[in-house]
User: Which sequence fits this backbone?
């Protein structure tokens, strides 16, 4: 039986991935802050699901919980880092920016390094990080969120370079969703908001195919392509 840890499994894409992996016969370790939601998730497939309560913004305690969970499971073939947060912040209130920085940069880096190091020390494994199409350009409405996702995209590329140079056997996949129908999709007039189920489907397909970078869903690949090509003079007016 293959074994996966999903960090950020209490809702949204993370919960969907945990449910689908468990239903497919994987043994899943679900990780998140909200124990009630984790207990409910584990009850859906009790034979295949364990959980650990952990907050990535408390790195020392979180890594201890992750290490204990992997020991309980007897190993790990896949780790999905799906935890993240962000707020619209037109007034540049730092109290709104700080949680995104602590979660998407500091906490994310701690758990991503832990997972990569665990796989590297054992000669291989698969690390999937859920970043965002938003990381391709800056955002005046949510500066810290987009900037933190850009950080994650570059960090994942750095890990792929490390893996290639060291022949460590670690595969790093960067999953970049567009707008998804979760609590993270904020604001008015949003377009192409994708159902969680479709995003989960295409994420699992990308993992099966060994993709290094996958924009999900397919229509958001067009948006990502346009964002990369759009001159700054035009982008700033949008």
Assistant:
């Amino acid at each position: 039986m293959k074994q996966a840890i999903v960090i950020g499994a209490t809702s949204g894409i993370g919960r969907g991935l945990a449910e689908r992996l468990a239903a497919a016969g994987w043994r899943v370790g679900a990780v998140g802050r909200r124990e009630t939601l984790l207990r409910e998730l584990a009850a859906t497939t009790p034979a295949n699901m364990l959980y650990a309560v952990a907050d990535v913004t408390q790195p020392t305690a979180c890594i201890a919980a992750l290490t204990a969970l992997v020991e309980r499971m007897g190993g790990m073939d896949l780790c999905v880092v799906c935890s993240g947060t962000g707020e619209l912040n037109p007034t540049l209130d730092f109290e709104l920016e700080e949680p995104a920085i602590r979660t998407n940069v500091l906490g994310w880096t701690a758990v991503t390094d832990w997972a990569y190091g665990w796989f590297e020390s054992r000669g291989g494994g698969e690390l999937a990080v859920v970043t965002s199409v938003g990381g391709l350009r800056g955002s005046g409405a949510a500066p810290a969120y987009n900037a933190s996702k850009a950080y994650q995209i570059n960090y994942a590329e750095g890990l792929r370079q490390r893996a290639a140079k060291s022949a460590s056997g670690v595969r790093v996949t960067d999953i970049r969703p567009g707008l998804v129908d979760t609590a993270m999709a904020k604001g008015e007039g949003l377009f192409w908001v994708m159902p969680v189920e479709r995003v989960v489907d295409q994420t699992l397909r990308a993992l099966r195919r060994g993709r290094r970078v996958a924009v999900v869903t397919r229509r958001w690949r067009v948006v990502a392509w346009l964002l990369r090509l759009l001159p700054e003079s035009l982008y700033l007016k949008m």
